[in-house]
Amino acid sequence: MRKKILIGIGIVLIGMQLIPTNYPEASENNPEDLFINNTISNDIESLIKTSCYDCHSNQSKYPWYSNIAPVSFVISNHINEGREHLNFSEWETLSKLDKAEALDDLMEEVDDKKMPLNGYLMMHSDAELTDEERNKIMDWADVFAESIFE
Amino acid sequence: MKNFLIILSITFIASISLSSFNVVNTPQERSDSFEIPKNIDIIFSSSCYSCHSVESTNYKAKMKLKLDELETMKLSKLVSKLNKIAKEVEKGDMPTKKFAKKYPDKMPTNEDKKTLIEWARNSAKQLVGE
Lengths: 150, 130
Fold this sequence. Notes:
The complex is a heterodimer. By secondary structure, chain A is mostly helical. Chain A has helices at 2-16, 34-37, 42-51, 71-85, 96-111, 118-123, 131-147. Chain B is mostly helical. Chain B has one domain (33-127). Helix content of chain B is 63%, strand content 0%. In chain B, α4 runs antiparallel to α6. Chain B is globular and about 75 Å long. Chains A and B meet through α5 and α7 of A and α4 and α6 of B.
């Protein structure tokens, strides 16, 4: 009985690998990127690129296990959704109002520790943000948002 | 001469304390004259302030938006919050279902919602000149 269950699970897992995953494309060439078009300190750039860019930009780095179902479904879903909410690679295509709103959302999510996602942090410990780093990002976002309307 | 020096120093101290007093009183400098109109304030009072104000005990709601701070917010904050008000009310997410169940008589009418959404959107656009 036990053997049959294990074989069954094995078949399902192997079968899953045949389902194509809808991977969001990764691209290094992003002329509308936030950091290309704005003067932002290296500190902030490195924090945001390390902690946010896998899902909130076109520069997603796919780990080796991202090809294995069902993990692949979760990852592609996170990236698709992340980019939909905010894509730093397309920053300059946003209106001023949308930029301000995105930064306001960013401050809320970072303050609330909703971002980066826990599941993501489990596999990317370097993306973890200390309280001090969170404050740094929020302070920057606050000033940067205001500069949009100057 | 001594009196003169005393008067001078008093003027000096007074001017310093007055100028710092001014700084305390105007936390943000916004050149526009944004004010919540009466008809909107009535809707806020009935349906929103109980959670979205400084005195609210609803921590989550308060963290996202304190309506009584709108008039003194920085421009970028103000327009973001106005846009979000329009979106949340339009989607039907605000007021929450819980609020609607608990205080059905305090819910805004569809007409109120429309007025609120239009006001919030137009004010945001006007403030940034878009």
